[in-house]
Predict the structure.
Amino acid sequence: MINFSNKKSNISSEVLFKMVWVSSFLAMIFVLPPLGLFLGIYFLTGELLIGAVIGFGVHFVILAFSGRISKFVTKLVS
């Protein structure tokens, strides 16, 4: 059975605002470069598979450094 605690925490609007901006920046950093590479390779060469492999590769390399990127973006927004 699921037990939901009745704890209510008050989150300030400043913390919520920073959380939304950091999450948005991280989403753009993780998605836009691999998507740009994928679409660029696909439209320039017509090779779907090569574009997909390079795009996924760049995406996972970026994900490997996600902790450092998150800390940097958090410092930048703060």
Remarks:
- Residues 36-78 form one domain.
- The chain is about 80% helix and 0% strand.
